[in-house]
Amino acid sequence: MDNFEVRFSGSGGQGLILSAKFLSAALMAEGYNVAQSQSYEPVSRGGLSRSDLVVSKGQAAFPLSRGLDYLLILHGAAAHASDGLLSKNSLVLVDSELVPEPPKGDFTLISLPFTDTARKLGNKRVANIVALSALVARAGLCPMAVLENVVRTKTPPKFANLNMEAFEAGQALALQDA
What is the pLDDT of residue 62? Predict the structure, then answer.
């Protein structure tokens, strides 16, 4: 893939912007140019939040998303916020617990238990890492080892083990559903 667009969407406080930064760093390590933008409502938690990556092996012609190849939705508040940017080639992953009414259309939709998996690991706040890992494993956006290294090196030491467990759990979710 020489050019593609990714959106992480959900609710404020879910770690979407952090996930986008992790993926951006992994993609840049693989030689891609990445433009990242983000948008969130002016509340610390609970408002609509998203982070977009426009990725290119060359120069990105426009730094904002115009058509999503990959969409990750972690909260029902964001379920339909990206409908106009999806196509038949889009891959959409949603949290099966927090997105009870996912978008409908002619695209690939996969519903996985990101929050439930994170809760079983002991902290539902790592649902973003579970989902990030599942997205990359399913879509093949970059080598998993590269993303794992980014998550490992950019995570504060006290959360490193939990984030690595979440990373492995997300990868396993993506592979069991394939």
Answer: 74
d(CA 87, CA 65): 13
Task: Beginning with the edge strand found earlier in the chain, give each strand of the sheet holding 91-95 in spatial order.
Answer: 33-40, 48-56, 3-11, 70-73, 91-95, 108-112
Torsion, Cα of 22, 25, 27, 31 (10° steps): -170
**Phi, psi for 78 (deg, rounded to 5):** -105, 5
Domains in the chain: how many in total?
1
Let me know: does 47 contact 12? Beta carbons within 8 Å. yes
Q: What is the pLDDT of residues 23-54, one digit of tens each?
A: 999 999 999 999 999 887 766 566 789 999 99
Residue 131: CATH number of its domain: 3.40.920.10
The token pair that represents 47 in the structure block? 């408002």
Question: How would you classify the pairing of strands 91-95 and 108-112?
Answer: parallel
Q: Is pTM beyond 0.90 here?
A: yes
